[in-house]
Design goal:
4 strands; 4-stranded antiparallel beta sheet; 27% helix; alpha+beta; 2 helices; 38% strand; single chain; 89 residues
Length: 89
């Protein structure tokens, strides 16, 4: 699937917010969450002890958002990720 990076002109002051549900093996969850917390615009509002983590990502442009999503999805030991919500504010 191709994502349109330039859906909004550069002078547009919209921001993009997404939430993702991540699944990892419980023994790797802490390390994955630590890496995500270091990423700009990312926060973890919830998790459980079974390897599920909720991540909220905010970015100024669609391109930055897609880059951050890709960075998260490429983390070692991440089993799956699902985009739950996308808001253009």
């Amino acid at each position: 699937m191709e994502i349109e990076y330039n859906a909004h002109p550069p002078e547009d002051d919209t921001s993009h917010i997404i939430s993702m549900l991540l699944m990892s093996r419980p023994q790797h969850q802490f390390n994955i969450e630590a890496l995500i917390r270091e990423m700009p615009g990312c926060e973890i509002p919830g998790n459980d002890d079974k390897g599920r983590t909720i991540v909220v990502v905010e970015a100024e442009t669609n391109k930055q958002l897609v880059q951050r999503m890709t960075q998260i999805q490429d983390l070692e030991h991440l089993v799956s990720s699902s985009l739950v919500f996308h808001q253009i504010a």
